[in-house]
Amino acid sequence: MTTDFRQYGTDLRVVFSGDGRADITWSARDLDLVDGLENLAQALTMRILVQRGELTDLAHPRYGSRVHELIGATLDRANLDLLRRHVRRALLGDPRVEKVESITATPIPSQPGAVHVAATVRARTGEIAGVEVALDLT
Fold first, then answer.
1. CB half-sphere exposure, 53, CA atoms < 13 A
2. In terms of DSSP H, where are the helices of 50-100?
3. pLDDT confidence of 28, banded at 50, 70, 90?
């Protein structure tokens, strides 16, 4: 299957560092861009990280996730299930996503309160995109 990059749009490339920061990147002369499935994955990552309702003043009240509601919660089975539900809802909020194929939420043993989330989505074009993000819920 050939990717039609217009299906997924183009955006500024964001690089996520291990310490929770994110920044746009530059090439020698201009801002770096991302397109295709890579843009979809980046957009879905941002959707997970942004607090739902945070962009209401910009006319996007339903954008984001409710992951922030689990900050400080114990990472027991019930809360990990709730985390997966919050992530699923956020992913399905993107009109380019047809179906969430899988989501895992695994505590990171070396970082108490941190969770590695990995998801696979099927885009409306039928193509598969992966999303991975580490969340610090302390």
1. 4
2. 77-92
3. confident
What domains can you pick out in the chain, each with its CATH number?
5-136 (3.10.450.40)
- Cβ atoms of 70 and 82 within 8 Å: the answer is yes
At residue 34, what are phi and psi to the nearest 5 degrees?
-130, 140
CA–CA gap between residue 90 and residue 58 (Å, rounded): 18
Task: Work out the mean pLDDT of the chain and round it to a whole number.
Answer: 91
CA atoms of 90 and 92, how far apart (whole Å):
5
pLDDT in tens, 86-122: 999 999 999 999 999 999 999 999 999 999 999 999 9
Interatomic CA distance for residues 69 and 102, integer angstroms: 22
